[in-house]
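[Automated response] Your request has been received and processed.

Submitted sequence:
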Amino acid sequence: MIIGVLASGNGNSFHALARACADGTVDATIGVVISNNTNAPVLAAAQELGIPAALINAARFDDPDAEILATLKRHRCDWVLLSGYMKKIAPETIKAYADRMVNTHPSLLPKFGQQGMYGIHVHNAVIAAGERRSGMSLHYVNEEYDSGEIIMQLTLTLDAHETPESLEKRVKLLEQKAVVDFFKQQSRGQ
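Generated structure:
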């Protein structure tokens, strides 16, 4: 199984998946890491691990959406993981990877989802709303932000003195676990 990863920043889940592929926990390889962000640390991290990395954005390509799909196909990716990818995925790519493209979201969807709800913004909103529980959702990608079928959710209870930053760190660990567990299961079912 070959997994393509799209990430706009650090690629939190990418790092956990790369370790799991390297140590044999997940019987798969990461075929390519794609980012839309020139300064995305995930690109350098992929290159350090010997994983092909591609910068694909409107500044470099007339049709970045078509280039993303072509790059995933060129690297023979069977699955796609969105790991903090901040651009909407083109319908053609979603169709090509129907039920084989997943995203992590740092809340218990449908709460605190949709456009503009990412990273620390989500955790600020969770705390401001007085939520006692939070967590993460792993879901299939469709044409609407954060509305694809939920595959799994992992939850945690907020501490009395929780900050957005402490919550973010705790949720990132849940995201890593969910991605590794999901792809471990998929690789066994090949």
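Summary generated for your ticket: The radius of gyration is 16 Å. The chain has a mean pLDDT of 93.
If you did not submit this request, please reply to this message.
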